[in-house]
Amino acid sequence: MDLLERQTELEELARLLREAGASAGKIAFVCGEAGAGKSELVEQFARQAAGAARVFWGYSDALQTSRVLGPVNELVTGIALLPGAPIELGLARDQLFSRLFEWFSPPNPVSIVVLEDLHWADEATLDFVRFLGRRIQRTRCLLIATFRDDELAPTHPLRSVLGELTGQHTARIPVPALSFNAVEQLAQGTLRNAREVFQLTGGNPFFVRELLSAPTHAVPQTVRDAVLARLMQCSPRAREVAELVSLLPGRTESWLTRTILNDIGAAADEAVARGLLRYHDETLAFRHELGRLAVESTIPRSRAQALHQSILRNLIERDADLSHLVHHASLAQDVKALIEYAPRAAEQAARAGAHREAVLHLATALRHVDSLSAPERARLFELHATECEITNQVSASLDSGTRALALWRELGNVAAQARVLLLLGRPCWKSGQTALADRHVAEGIALLETLPQSRELAMAYSARSQLAMTSQRIEEALEFGQRALDLAAKFGDYGVRAHALNNIGAALLRSGNDAGLATLEQSLAVALEHNLQEHAGRAYANLVSSSVRLRLPSSLAERYIPEGLEYCDVHEVQTHLSYIRAYSAHCDLNKGQWDKAARVAVELIEHHALAISQRIPAMVVLAIVRARRGDPGVDLLLDEAMQLALPTGELQRIGPVAATRAEVAWYRGDMKRVAAAAATGLQAAGRVRDRWFLGELAYWAHRANPSLEVPANIAEPYALMIAGDWEGAAAAWQQLGAPYERALALADGPEEALLESLAILERLGAGPLTAIVRQRLRELGVRGIPRGPRASTRDNPAGLTSREVQVLSLLVHGHTNTELAHRLHVSAKTIDHHVSSILEKLEVRSRTEAVAAAFGLGIVKAVKGQAHNTAG
Cα–Cα distance between 800 and 806 in angstroms, integer? Predict the structure, then answer.
């Protein structure tokens, strides 16, 4: 069948390839529904470009649990066949990623790297896409990744990859359905009613092809019927081949089909000739996954189970990929094989950083946990709890950890009980159950202290130090941190040493002792020297959060944010990477870079599975940007953030939310709510003496009630503002590089200060405080108050066309592209072009961010009483 209506997409790929060879590498995300023709498009392009570039392929398969680094290993296999290739099989993940990056970089020739069906890819493969994508401009590579955009749930891990990899080196190439004219052209000579085929298929190329190729004169009602009609035209032997291949997602090796079915040469040729299968070198595969599923659905359950058992036996003999073994063991209902191979597959996945796949493999094994002995059950639950904790599946981690603990208690294994209690402390803390986390860790310590001193006890002491540090129980944090250091020295355990130094350094800084910075940096040095990636990531995270939250010299954040992001990205320390990104957004907020701050916060909130410690700071950043611009959606964000923060009892969670609530209430002139919000934060502070949290909360409390007693030893800029020294406060904020806070301080000054404040606020795009400053100037009788940008610029500062403004206004109300096309009497493709242009002009990456920018830039005005919560 001809490849129709794909010239635009082919030309775009060709342009990207030219640029990749001439200047900097590019990424093309080719997306569309199942059957849209993504693979055919890329294969056609690869054939056309074969003389200009090397082409490497990697495929993801529709297994129950994806192969770990399956597509990446296929790339390696292809590269390793070339003479002089500096790469070999079996490399550790970090080495593998680095070698591939080098292979696709100058002075090597231009490469096209195709990764098919990323919606099925494992976590480690998506990490590779991130790794290469963030460095793509330094390569001579066109990375083409295909995926089904209609099958991505909001929390699908591919969404976070798509959100992170944007910009001038990235292109999104949607593959649309065929038009009626194209279907009519294809239907010529088939005796089919083109209009009926078009209505039935919606222009989906695969559906069109199947219906037009159906061997009956009547048009089948479903594509499944069309595929099966073709199957029924095959000989029994060819049908047998097709059925076997349908049970093997991806491509089926010839040795396997020969082993199970003996000589199948003529039968395979017939299935290929009938258009069901096609050859890939020495393998057989269906022309499309939808066809495979159609044939698979016809096989009786008992026969399918027997075939899966036969496939499994043969794959075991060949030492096949563990994910394949688990897949077929599950469908063969071979419990013994599942119990043997699923945990092994999970361990392999975890070693490669594919913790999401590890969880799935362990969950598969847990479905048959009753067939195991008690120690085996306990160990399996413990492994599942550990992997769930790593992937931020907090509830699942708590459930499996609790089950493991109960089993170890029945077995009387004290060391295992202590180990699981310490494990449970982490998801308890992540879920906001700080008191329960404290109890678990204390109980674990009590058990370990009944045994000879050990590394485990050292880490338990450090875990208690960490919990005390996060709750700002400074003396306790320092005491147990030192106990951990003493035992770490005795056992030569650098991991415990790095962890304890981290706790001590962070605790000292939070108590106002600047010596904590050197201790934190020492923790990082120990972790880096001994390649302790988790500990290094945590050290970077606390250095960044401390630098931002405590307003340390800007040079620290400027150093540790890029260092930490790069390190955690390369080593895939995802938990700390998200934490650093959240505080990097707060750093941008502090510097007045609101668009950037909001963009990062939205991406984190919408596309990442965040723990409370990561989600709250991201939500606070987004809420502050919206509040200061006067955008809608603030209250919903802050309500959720406070619901998450209150159960923790920690000032570092409750304080920022309470302060932001007070700020929002002040803009609205609601002093009662200002006082209540500030009181909530001050109550959480208790006897904690955090200069910056206390200073901000005291400032808002003082705004509501000037007679309120101000806590001692608060941060200087807030103390100056409370004392009425607006000039000193403004100078202090300027020294800290905080323009909005400087404008807030100047807003309490005379006419000249108010005018300077107004100029700052208009540059920032602030709304409510600008209105307050203008009102104060009017009250002073000032004439000729600057009006801000001209109306034309104010109404359309991004240079949007009138049609784009119209589209953007409708996007605000949540209309889909199809609805927009109908409403504006244009095609959906035209709407796609308008939306793409809007995103580019507004310098945003999603419809959600476009809506936020529309309000922030004043292009679209909020409807009174309307609350758009586009990222909650």
Answer: 10
Residues 6+ apart with CB under 8 A from 776: 747, 754
626 burial level (CB within 10 Å; 0-12, 13-18, 19+): buried
CA dihedral 641, 642, 645, 651 (to 10 degrees): 120
**Residue 378 burial by Cβ neighbours in a 10 Å radius (0-12, 13-18, 19+):** buried
In three-state form (DSSP H/G/I as H, E/B as E, the rest C), the secondary structure along 225-251 is HHHHHHHHCCCHHHHHHHHHHHCCCCC
To which H or E segment does residue 142 belong? strand 141-147
Residue with tokens 């895939």: 572
Find where tokens 């796949």 sit.
Answer: 357
For residue 686, is it left (φ>0), alpha (ψ between -120 and 50) or beta?
Answer: left
* Greater pLDDT, 58 or 814: 58
Residues 485/488/493/498 CA torsion (nearest 10 deg): -10
C-alpha 89/C-alpha 96 separation (Å) is 9
Residue 427 pLDDT exceeds 80? yes
Could you tell me if 19 and 170 are in contact, meaning their C-beta atoms sit under 8 angstroms apart? no
Q: Are strands 277-280 and 141-147 parallel, antiparallel or unpaired?
A: unpaired
Contacts of 132 (CB under 8 A, 6+ apart): 97, 100, 101, 104, 113, 139, 141, 143
**801-813 tens-digit pLDDT:** 667 777 888 877 7
The candidate with the shortest Cα–Cα distance to 532, out of 577, 496, 482, 556, is: 496
Dig out the tokens for 271 from the structure.
Answer: 């299935």
Across the beta sheet with 170-174, the strand order is: 54-59, 111-116, 141-147, 26-31, 170-174
> DSSP 3-state assignment of 277?
strand
- Give the β-pairing of 283-286 and 252-253: antiparallel
Q: In 10 A of CB 618, how many CB atoms? A: 29
CB atoms within 10 A of CB 358: 31
At 496, list the tokens.
């415990």
- The single residue listed with the structure tokens 């338990």 is 460
Q: 431-441 as b/e, with b when 16 or more CB fall inside 10 Å?
A: bbbbebbbebb
- Cα–Cα distance list, 794 to 197, 225, 384, 834 (Å): 50, 58, 55, 21
Token duo for residue 666: 């002040």
pTM of the model: 0.76
Give just the sign of the alpha carbon dihedral 141, 142, 145, 146: negative
491-515, pLDDT tens digit by residue? Answer: 999 999 999 999 999 999 988 899 9
Which two structure tokens, joined as six digits, stand for 729?
């406060």
Cis? peptide before 107, omega within 30° of 0: yes
Q: CA 529, 533, 539 angle in degrees (round to 5)?
A: 80
Least confident of 163-177, 579-593, 711-725, 755-769: 163-177
SS3 of residue 737 by DSSP: coil
CB neighbour list of residue 644: distance below 8 Å, 6 or more residues apart: 432, 612, 615, 616, 653
Could you give the residue ranges of the DSSP H alpha helices within 705-767?
Answer: 716-722, 726-735, 739-746, 751-764
Number of Cβ within 10 Å of residue 234's Cβ equals 18
Q: Are 460 and 501 in contact (CB under 8 A)?
A: no
What pLDDT, on a 0 to 100 scale, did the predictor assign at position 868? Answer: 37
Measure Cα distances from 15 to 25, 359, 840 in Å.
12, 41, 18
Residue 25: both structure tokens together: 């590498």
| 434-to-441, 474, 610, 645 alpha-carbon distances in Å | 11, 16, 17, 11
Q: Counting Cβ atoms within 10 Å, is residue 592 exposed (0-12), middle (13-18) or buried (19+)?
A: buried
For the beta sheet containing 252-253, the strands, ordered from the edge strand earlier in sequence to the opposite edge, are 252-253, 283-286, 277-280
CB 629 within 8 A of CB 856: yes
pLDDT at 865 over 60: no
Tokens of 113: 């790297």
